[in-house]
Design brief:
Largest sheet: 8 strands, mixed
Number of helices: 17
Number of domains: 4
CATH topology of the largest domain: BirA Bifunctional Protein, domain 2
CATH class of the largest domain: Alpha Beta
Length: about 575
């Protein structure tokens, strides 16, 4: 066997005259005037191989096809000046082949492997092992590896230790649905795959491992949602004897290190901070992309004394009128679509003002005096053509309606390249009302420490006003990190469970091991989890996290390549004591 002495990306002019052996895949084959040129590819790069006529190796090379796996031995020589390829790192040299060994042949591939094209995602996932040969996909996986190494190096330098936590664990369905795994040895009982290592990392803090991290595999059995995966990876971090600012400082250092070493980009620290209330009032989203502007402005003072009754009555009934400006002009049909979108979020309608060529147009213009229009222009600092969208209603409806329109406009504007909008959102609500369950549920998770002063202040009032000591990091409109200071006292945890209407019996059954651990000396602690797949996608500037995962599932959780999920045979089910009964079976 011809075993490689070099890879296909490392030979340079200084190697001229050396005898080398290369292994790889045939990327391209060209027959020019009797001379055969092969571009040989491995994960390190490309090298041109030359086969001269009149040799045994030339005759063998005639039968080579795309994606054949070969070994080549030959002499490195300099390419003629007019034949160099500056786009290839190895473009100044080539290897004159003297020996050739074909390790395996290849059929004509159903998708391209040596270029990026518009092949359907279904075909790409079905032939993922071929898709991963494409240049961009290969680089995505390599960069993913580099980021993982940077994460480990950074956290190791701060005395964190990497500890694995169980994959087979106990079902605690307080959030997304668990994936269940039946036990063969304890028939009728089930393990669950972890949605996150949350409870285990808290137990590690109680165990005295004050700085923990893990690149953790997580599993969530969610319904159809775009760009989500049933299994994913998060950078999981927890630390003891810290407050929120110390946790955020560690996280900021991690992101500065990653962006500097991978992209050469220096992120300015400390990152901006907004409260949850700030971003909801200004952008209608808890993860806005602020690079696009379109910040909401309250307009009650303009409309409270106008003849436009619909807005005036909203203000009189303690509602709010808000709007934002976008430097684009939209057709009536487009505006109608935006209005329907606003209505889908509970709004009664959508008002608009079009500023174009020094003129203003609006269906409610007749209700406003010229001075009010000038005041409106000053509110939004309008110096160019564009459109103001306005909604009047309950504050929550206004924010979510305008937020939905803003998100749609951002999609239309397209992606902003080569810039990163990075900031913290802090002080999320601790509880939110669930209409379906008719109770408060945890907005983050039930182990987040609330502001105890808020808990006392609103204990007999609106619990949705209780703030949590939680925080998210947002990059370019994506929640990339989520974390919190945790509860470390049993009595506080039991009080939160009581608010969530989790009975003592249920709490003991689901979380008894954690509550008991609190009785043996638990340190104050907090941490965060980074969506590793999304972080890699942002750094690689790709839209879907499927493009940065080696073997992802479709949006419906299917693996087209292997055929998972699949049926299993009756013998396996019998061993587990399970009988499958589909809905509708009698």
């Amino acid at each position: 066997m011809l075993k490689r002495t070099h890879n296909c990306g490392e030979l340079r002019k200084e190697n001229v005259g050396e005898r080398v052996i290369l292994n790889g895949w045939v990327d391209r084959r060209r027959d020019l005037g009797g001379i055969i040129f092969i571009t040989l590819r491995d994960r390190y790069g490309l090298t041109q191989i030359v086969f001269n006529p009149g040799t045994d190796v030339y005759e063998l090379a005639k039968n080579l096809g795309g994606e054949y796996v070969i070994g080549v031995e030959g002499m490195v020589r300099e390419r003629p000046a007019d034949a160099t390829n500056p786009s290839m790192p190895t473009g100044e040299i080539e290897v004159l082949a003297e020996k050739l060994e074909v390790f395996s042949s290849s059929k004509v591939t159903p998708i391209y492997t040596n270029r990026d094209d518009e092949t359907s995602e279904e075909m790409r996932l079905k032939y993922r092992y071929l898709d991963l040969r494409r240049p961009n996909m290969k680089e995505n996986i390599i960069v993913r590896h580099r980021i993982a190494q940077i994460v480990r190096d950074y956290l190791n330098s701060l005395d964190f230790i990497e500890i694995e936590t169980p994959i087979l664990t106990k079902s605690t369905p307080e959030g997304a649905r668990d994936f269940l795994v039946p036990s063969r040895l304890k028939k009728g009982k089930f393990y669950a795959l972890p949605q996150s290592p949350q409870l285990f990392k808290q137990l590690l803090m109680i165990a005295g491992f004050d700085k923990y991290y893990q690149l953790a595999r997580c599993f969530r059995d969610e319904d159809f949602r775009a760009d989500r995966q049933p299994e994913f990876t998060q950078i999981d971090v927890e630390m003891s004897f810290v407050d929120r600012d110390e946790v955020l400082e560690v996280a900021e250092g991690l992101f500065v290190e990653i962006f500097k070493k991978v992209l050469g980009v220096t992120l300015k620290t400390p990152f901006r901070r907004y409260t949850y209330n700030d971003v909801m009032e200004s952008y209608g989203s808890d993860k806005p992309d602020t690079r696009y502007g379109m910040k909401f402005v309250e307009l009650n003072d303009i409309f409270e004394k106008t003849e436009f009754r619909a807005f005036r009555e909203v203000i009189e009934n303690s509602g709010v009128v808000k709007g934002f400006f976008v430097d684009e002009i939209y057709s009536r049909k487009e505006i109608s679509n935006f209005e329907n979108l606003a209505k889908s979020y509970g709004s009664k309608g959508l008002a608009w003002f079009r500023f174009s060529n020094g003129e203003v147009h609006s269906p409610i213009l007749k209700f406003l005096k010229p001075l009010k229009i000038e005041e409106l222009k000053r509110k939004f600092d309008i110096a160019s053509d564009g459109t103001v969208f306005v909604v009047a209603d309950d504050r929550k409806i206004v924010n979510t309606s305008l937020g939905a329109i803003r998100s749609e406009l951002i999609k239309k504007k397209g992606k902003i390249q080569d810039s990163f909008d990075v900031f913290w959102v802090i002080d999320f609500p601790m509880f939110e009302w669930d209409e379906e369950e008719n109770r408060f549920v945890a907005a983050h998770h039930p182990f987040t420490m609330p502001y105890l002063s808020d808990l006392e202040r609103y204990k007999d009032g609106d619990l949705s006003k209780v703030r949590a000591q939680s925080y998210d990091l947002v990059i370019n409109g994506y929640e990339i990190l989520s974390g919190s200071i945790r509860i470390h006292k049993k009595e506080i945890q039991e009080r939160v469970f009581d608010i969530l209407k989790i009975s003592k019996e249920e709490a003991k059954k689901k979380f008894g091991f954690l509550l008991e651990a609190f009785e043996y000396g638990a340190p104050p602690h907090g941490g965060f989890a980074v969506g590793f797949d999304r972080l890699v996608a942002i750094i690689r500037n790709v839209d879907s996290i499927r493009d940065v995962i080696a073997f992802p599932k479709t949006a419906t959780g299917a693996d087209i390549m292997t055929g998972a999920p699949s049926e299993v045979n009756k013998r396996q089910l019998d061993e587990l004591g399970i009988e499958v009964k589909l809905k509708g079976d009698t």
